[in-house]
Amino acid sequence: AQDSCVLVLVRHGATSANLAVPHVLQGSGLDLSLCDVGVRQAEQVAEFLATQFAGQPSPALFSSQLKRAVETAERIAAKVSRLSLRERTRLLDGESQNEVQPVEDAPFRG
Length: 110
What we know:
Blueprint: H1 16-19, H2 36-52, E1 61-63, H3 67-79, E2 85-88, E3 108-109
Parallel strand pairs: 1-2
Antiparallel strand pairs: 2-3
């Protein structure tokens, strides 16, 4: 049997800025919580991933420190058993390619 790895990328749920017209670019400078729509989105993806990873080895969950990302990841962690959130203090938020440090050098929190 060949070892394999599955990488799942999930965008955070919506914030009021995502739904605003005209749209508001948040980047890392505007740290908003999920709005009601975003909470529902996060819960839906959490349910989906819980079914996808049922009976699988413990996956890892990483999130940036931004509220919207952490709130989305926390909902996923609550639904997917054996999963704990590892929050990155610097996970490519507003960094250029030259500023990004190798994963091994980035500190963990959580």
